[in-house]
């Protein structure tokens, strides 16, 4: 953009690049298409060998996160809450910082993810590498996915998934199916598969279909965001638990971002591609805020959930 003015989405009929927060009640930021400058560059595929740096997390952070998870498990077992995603913010001191170098390393580390660097002088600098599509829509055809369950990649693409991860994944898939049934037709739910993102594996189920004539992009976004993969079920109860118990503001973490109503030069159709803002960090001065979380169900183990967040944070921190 050629100015520092903040622009916001009104009803998702606009064209440009959207950066939306986790809280759907807050405004989504827009880089309008008619104010954007497009620059392209071919990146040389030279992956730098990343030195495995030792990172420590203080015991108080672990204790606090484990306590919240234990409280969430209790709520799930005693109330209508079925699942809730608990996250945390980890602060990392940066000694040397190069925007382009970090972006390149994210590209090479997360080859199957949507990798971005985003900056606005009134908001800040964000990096991310998301393996999760919120929504892709072209004309009346759309695609989305449910993504849940995590384990560390150990040189096998055919891992054994436990009942906890399988149930968590099914909850997300069922939510998407129920949310879309009134606004779509020809809904197709693919077979669940394992995908790799950096040093982690996830369960993914692709979902596709057609929009009804009466449906709008805004309706579809409101129906899906935030999904149980980043919030929980039932959505309102989970969101209330997060707002009450997480000790920080997620801001744009677990929000969504991407191209909004852009037209390809070779087509008359407008296309929207939105991704959930996972595996991300905000950089301010010499400190990076790395955001990580995990889905909690009745079968969760607090210590294991803590270790999952450590694994998720590790790759993001290594590119710094």
Automatic annotation (TrEMBL):
SUPFAM superfamilies: ADC synthase. Pfam families: Chorismate_bind (PF00425). Its EC number is 5.4.4.2. One of its GO terms (molecular function) is isochorismate synthase activity. Keywords: Isomerase. Gene3D superfamilies: Anthranilate synthase. The keyword Isomerase applies. It catalyses: chorismate = isochorismate. Residues 62-312 form the Chorismate-utilising enzyme C-terminal domain. It comes from the Bacteria. Belongs to the isochorismate synthase family. NCBIfam families: isochor_syn. This is isochorismate synthase. It comes from Polaribacter aestuariivivens.
């Amino acid at each position: 953009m050629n100015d520092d003015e903040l622009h916001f989405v009104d009803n998702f009929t606009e064209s440009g690049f959207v950066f939306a927060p986790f809280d759907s009640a807050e405004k989504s930021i827009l880089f309008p298409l008619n104010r954007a400058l497009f620059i392209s560059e071919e990146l040389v595929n030279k992956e730098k060998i990343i030195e495995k740096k030792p990172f420590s997390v203080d015991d108080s952070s672990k204790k606090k996160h484990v306590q919240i998870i234990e409280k969430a498990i209790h709520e799930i077992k005693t109330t209508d809450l079925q699942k809730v995603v608990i996250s945390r913010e980890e602060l990392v001191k940066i000694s040397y910082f190069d925007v382009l170098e970090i972006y390149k390393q994210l590209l090479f580390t997360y080859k199957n993810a949507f990798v971005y660097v985003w900056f606005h002088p009134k908001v800040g600098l964000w990096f991310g590498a998301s393996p999760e599509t919120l929504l892709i829509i072209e004309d009346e055809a759309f695609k989305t996915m449910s993504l849940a369950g995590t384990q560390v990649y150990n040189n096998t693409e055919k891992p054994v998934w436990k009942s906890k991860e399988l149930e968590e994944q099914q909850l997300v898939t069922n939510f998407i199916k129920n949310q879309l049934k009134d606004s779509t037709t020809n809904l197709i739910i693919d077979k669940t598969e394992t995908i790799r993102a950096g040093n982690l594996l996830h369960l993914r189920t692709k979902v596709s279909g057609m929009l009804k004539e009466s449906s709008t992009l805004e309706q579809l976004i409101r129906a899906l965001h935030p999904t149980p993969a980043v919030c929980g079920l039932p959505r309102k109860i989970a969101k209330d638990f997060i707002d009450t118990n997480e000790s920080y503001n997620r801001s744009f973490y677990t929000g969504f971002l991407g191209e909004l109503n852009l037209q390809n030069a070779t087509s008359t159709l407008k296309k929207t591609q939105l991704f959930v803002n996972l595996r991300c960090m905000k950089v301010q001065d010499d400190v990076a805020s790395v955001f990580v979380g995990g889905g909690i169900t009745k079968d969760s183990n607090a210590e294991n959930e803590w270790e999952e967040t450590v694994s998720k944070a590790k790759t993001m921190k290594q590119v710094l």
